[in-house]
């Protein structure tokens, strides 16, 4: 009965002729078949994502193989890898996102079975990459501030000064053009209050960003007077 169910679910032919060959293939695949919208589907992708997040390329490859053998939608896999590249790797390795996007484009272009190589490359790279969820946490905190009513007016110096009457209102009057300032960073207040949403981790390239940001924030704070 399991083999029969697998044969029906895995075949797009309607009406379906359940031949001996289809029965043999179904028996061979029964251990890895699952409903693409059911619990096994979500459990498998959860295991894949958590293995990559946990920096275990071997476990990640196994769950990838399981899903491919079960006929998982390659586009679904690519979408999840792109999300993970930003959510769990982020700026700790800025190459993770373009690699994941390139993998999606390559899979769309060449299809299975050859795109399994692309998926394997993407999964192993992401698993081995340094991890950071700092960008994920930052946008979550910023949006929560907005949702909870902490909405700030745009500082006058940053407002659009190109429409009629803007000059009379003082819009853009105190704006400092960064490229005209030594070092390319103006001591300008861009928010109106002191907020720190982005907190880089000390891993991968984000450690370098943390060092840069410490210097940048010192300059920016001086503009808040």
> What low-confidence regions span 5 or more consecutive residues with pLDDT below 50?
none
Largest sheet properties = none
CATH T-level topology of the largest domain: Zinc Finger, Delta Prime, domain 3
| Rg, alpha carbons | 25 Å
Overall shape: it is elongated
- The CATH C-level name of the largest domain is Mainly Alpha
Tell me the number of strands.
Answer: 0
Oligomer: single chain
| Secondary structure category | mainly alpha
Tell me what the CATH architecture of the largest domain is: Up-down Bundle
H/E element order: HHHHHHHHH
| Percent helix | 55-70%
- What's the rounded overall pLDDT mean? 87
Tell me the number of helical segments per DSSP (H or I, 4 or more residues long). 9
**End-to-end CA span:** 75 Å
Total domain modules: 3
Assess the beta-strand content as a share of residues.
under 5%
Task: Explain this structure.
- This protein has three domains: about 1-35, no CATH class; about 35-130, Zinc Finger, Delta Prime, domain 3 (Up-down Bundle), CATH 1.20.272; about 135-220, Orthogonal Bundle (post-AAA+ oligomerization domain-like).
- The protein is about 55% helix and about 0% strand.
- It has nine helices and no strands.
- Helix 3 (about 40-55) runs antiparallel to helix 4, helix 5 packs parallel to helix 7 and helix 6 (about 95-110) packs antiparallel against helix 7 (about 115-130).
- The N and C termini lie far apart (about 75 Å).
Give a brief description:
The protein has 225 residues and is mainly alpha-helical.
């Amino acid at each position: 009965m399991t083999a029969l169910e697998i044969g029906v679910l895995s075949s797009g032919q309607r009406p379906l002729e359940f031949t001996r060959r289809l029965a043999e293939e179904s028996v061979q695949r029964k251990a890895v078949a699952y409903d693409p919208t059911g619990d096994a589907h979500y459990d498998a992708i959860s295991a894949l994502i958590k293995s990559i997040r946990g920096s275990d390329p071997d476990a990640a490859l196994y769950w990838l193989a399981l899903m491919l053998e079960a006929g998982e939608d390659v586009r679904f896999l690519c979408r999840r890898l792109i999300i993970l590249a930003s959510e769990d790797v982020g700026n700790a390795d800025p190459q993770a996102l373009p690699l994941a996007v390139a993998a999606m484009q390559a899979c769309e272009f060449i299809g299975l079975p050859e795109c399994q190589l692309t998926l394997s490359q993407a999964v192993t790279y992401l698993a081995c990459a340094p991890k950071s969820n700092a960008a994920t946490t930052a946008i979550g905190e910023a949006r929560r501030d907005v949702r909870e009513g902490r909405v700030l007016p745009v500082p006058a110096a940053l407002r659009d000064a190109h429409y009629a009457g803007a000059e009379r209102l003082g819009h853009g009057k105190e704006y400092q053009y960064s490229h005209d300032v030594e070092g390319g960073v103006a001591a300008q207040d861009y928010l109106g209050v002191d907020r720190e949403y982005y907190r880089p981790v000390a891993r991968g390239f984000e450690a370098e960003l943390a060092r840069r940001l410490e210097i940048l924030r010192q300059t920016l704070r001086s503009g808040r007077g």
